[in-house]
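Good morning,

Both structures are done.
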Amino acid sequence: MQMHHPTMTPDTASQRFDREAQEWDQRPTSLQLAPVAGRLLAQVHFGAHDHVLDFGAGTGLLATAVAPQVARVTALDTSAGMLAVLRDKGLHNIDTLQQDIFEGLPDRYDAIVSCMALHHVADTAGLFREFARALVPGGQIALVDLYAEDGSFHGDNVAKGVQHFGFEPAMLEDIAHAAGLTQIGFSKIAQVHRSNGRSYPLFLMTGHRDAGAGDLPKASDAA
């Protein structure tokens, strides 16, 4: 039996992202996340010739910050509305790609970045295998998401397509190593305050694909 792997959200949640795309950057949470891009760039080095994949790019919080530092950014998201807002920002070296990452990516990347997208993917282990497969040898990841929480960050988790209530770093490190990634590190990068009166810390997860690694097999090759 073939298993379906949702990249970001169920259809109903994806439609919600489309509806809210025009106002997304003005949400209180988005305004609090705005400094994350600069903090990520202060910790992670990108090369001028790099091609970077922004997974779950949304309206381009990371893509627009990374683009001036690199040759090209591919902004991947399942929401057409979010990507339309990003295109309207007019950065010439950002290409948008609307699809599920499990459908197979058209290129290989020097780096993969992401902000607040991991918790929308049910199959975390499968996602990290796709990351490793998509990276060139020596390529890097820089992923921002929630530390493990009790489900109160989003509140209406089903409607928002939430698959995980954040993550324990040790678990993600094990998953990343199993996928073929090394030099995994974690640091706190931000704190988000919500209307419930609570604050939630976010991590930056970094790592690399082994520079000596060859091409990784696709999941279908192992079947």
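Second structure follows.
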Amino acid sequence: MLSKLAEETKNTILTMVKGAGEIGVALQTAVKDNVVSVLKGVGQITTTATGVVSEVVQGAIVAASQTGITLTTATKNVATGAIKGAFEVGVSTVDATQKVVTGTIKGAAEVGGDVASVAVASVEGAIEAAGAIGANTEEAAKVAIMTAVKAADEIGTEVGQDVRKALLSTASLPKDIVKAVLG
């Protein structure tokens, strides 16, 4: 069940994205703006405060599932936008990546989506966002992969195994980093 913040985010995102010509870009921008707004509203950036990023992302994933855009496309855009937004207000890339990846995994589980595909898209989005903001993409990839596996394991052992397999078999991810993280 979505938290109040996640539900509000879902409704905001649905309103902003409906009718947009390029849904992926609109979704990325809407999520980025929403994360910035929520974090600025919190005031001081602390670990507790950045926990809301996960809720915003979860709400965005649920909203995206209701727009007709594929969950994997939505996830990559949500992750990219959320990390850019969190970074803009002073959240570290590592903390933002952890919160965002966790939120995408929880959101996918909430809507009954393919968590393994969402995990891959979330890692891709984290790497893309890190590159766009000038952060270390290798570090972002490591953090995103570890977080995706941890979040998937919390859902269930089988889901965790599916995520590991998907991460290992995806050509777009840096194989050396995936193998180093997953062993």
